[in-house]
Structures
1.
Amino acid sequence: MTRGNDPAQYRTLRVALLGAGAVGSQVASLLLRHGDELADRAGARLELAGIAVRDLDAARDVELPRELLTTDAENLILGSDIVIELMGGIEPARTQLLAALNSGADVVTANKALLATHGPELFDAADRVGASVHYEAAAAGAIPIIRPLRDSLAGDRVVRIMGIVNGTTNYILDRMDTEGADFDDVLADAQRLGYAEADPTADVEGYDAAQKAAILASLAFHTTVPLETVHREGITGISAGMIQQASDAGYVIKLLAVCERITVDSVESISVRVYPALVARSHPLASVHGANNAVFVEAEAAGSLMFYGAGAGGVQTASAVLGDVVSAARRHIAGGVGVGESTRANLPIVPIAHVTTRYQITLEVEDQPGVLARVAGILSEGDVSVATVVQSAEGEGTARLVIGTHRATEAALSATVERLAASDVVDRVIAVLRVEGE
Ligand code: NAP
């Protein structure tokens, strides 16, 4: 006997879609076009009951049946089995998803801003009624990373995640690296081509990556990670000169989201941080080009795993959303309690000062005998041990020192850099960058 579904026996599930923008319009189109296939995979017919938008007459990326559009999201949610939220922003998304969950609907969302700030509230609401919240598209777009962390690696212990989770900044840094271009010029180009928003702050200052880091770390370490505990630095201070110098030393600069299990004072803890860092050209993350994303996961038993692909894009992201819709439909059909979030580990989240990495410090110094010894002395007094030094003539009477350090704590490093900056042999601290992945 074969295991097959009899289409005639399928239950029909009512699906409400909130939002028909870049992602929502593609989700609607795929739901309408691939209804039969999706029904076979989900074991239920997915009936798109309506699409909530702000403006019924707005131009859409794909043509959608006019009769499905509504401005009354509250009414559309009532009686729905699955609610897909693709509006973005905190409100009204939060209130409407809570209403959906409280009515027993399963929820699918791609809203990283909402999950990073109100995730626990949504997960608690889902737990109370046994429903589930699916959010594969909220981190790294089309790349399957949420399900691997939540399900495939549930029996393992994740040690570290290093992710390139923001396509805009990767596009900018990659072009700076390959063309020697300046940040401002590439940003202007990225805005013209639609890779960067008119207001690029969320991307270039690392806010978007920090939201994704909070989501990934919560899942990986079974611990609620509030957004405000994520250390965040953007890429606006990265110059063409820094990129060139990194390249000369065999590195590429990437904006990384790093989520790490670390032991501080014998207490198992986690660190979650976003900053531009040096990555060796031989590391798999160094070959992530353009607006692509990649997430490098290290787990105790599985070893190193790399997830790579499109981190954004309407139709690409819609693929991840529809995968979630099928999962939600299967749960609805099977009944029982949905997969909840596991936050039982409840590990402490340590501030950046406790984090240990290697650094590259670039200084402009006076070109005189004894300067190198003075600099080395300040580093050693500060418990920062030197691994490599490259000296080059900078200009009249000045030299450039590029110092690679062994692992040191952030606290020791920043105190030492302050002392270097204040010393009479250092004219200028040109750059301090962390080295990751070594
Ligand atoms: P978008 O293009 O700005 O579309 C937003 C849609 O939501 C529009 O159709 C808008 O209606 C509707 N909307 C907004 N506020 C509403 C309200 N109060 N009531 C009813 N409808 C409302 O956004 P998007 O790029 O598709 O992104 C959607 C979500 O996916 C966001 O959370 C985003 O972070 C996430 N995401 C996007 C991407 C991507 O590549 N775009 C990738 C990963 C995740 P009108 O059309 O009438 O204005």
2.
Amino acid sequence: MKIVVAVKRVVDYNVKVRAKSDGSGPELANVKMSLNPFDEIAVEEAVRLKEAGDAAEVVVISCGPSSCQETLRTALAMGADRAILVETEKELQPLAVAKLIKAVFEREAADLVILGKQAIDDDCNQTGQMLAALAELPQATFASKVTISREQIDVTREIDGGLEMLSLRLPAVVTTDLRLNEPRYVTLPNIMKAKKKPLEVLTPETLGVDVAPRLKTLRVIDPPKRAAGVKLPDVKALLEKLKSESKVI
Ligand code: AMP
């Protein structure tokens, strides 16, 4: 079985993101970038399935500028076998990414695609669902447990107030939730090994995919600043303040 894992290069989750002064988007100059945390979980799951003998090959794919090669190398250091970069400097929206992943998935004749449930930069939570619709594949989103048996994949999903168990026929699309696994740390020897693993570079044009944006971003702004808090001397003062100033909704 071959697994394709989609990985996005995003602003590191420790960075406090600021909007550009002209409101055209987030400030990305000199900002630390990393592998999207949900995609790290996706790579970990695919590598575990391979280690358990349920998968023969793990192929990671990223769409974006050439700097995404660094992100792909991290996924290779975690244990993926090979990487594909669909290189473009153009802005990519979820529909375009879903079309690109579909093209690669079909070219690879893969059995399973694992994506993150969302990219932490745009918080779209759309790409996996769009991919499943475009490729006419069954989908299980927000997976917290995955098991594979022959032509079938069983997925436990976290839903409001409980868990839902689904059984899907392969090929299928799965998106990862936070509790699916705890990704491994990449070790120095594996980083060195990853440098020698194959990384193929394609373009949207060679895949015959039109990535023209369908949405226009009007403005990106920082959230309103929170007013500073006050320190009270004791509990009595706190109770007084709550009594006199708190509002009943
Ligand atoms: P989103 O729909 O943008 O929240 O992204 C959901 C998931 O789609 C991510 O966690 C990734 O697995 C995948 N994805 C989104 N954008 C890209 C990209 N440019 N390259 C590769 N995978 C992506």
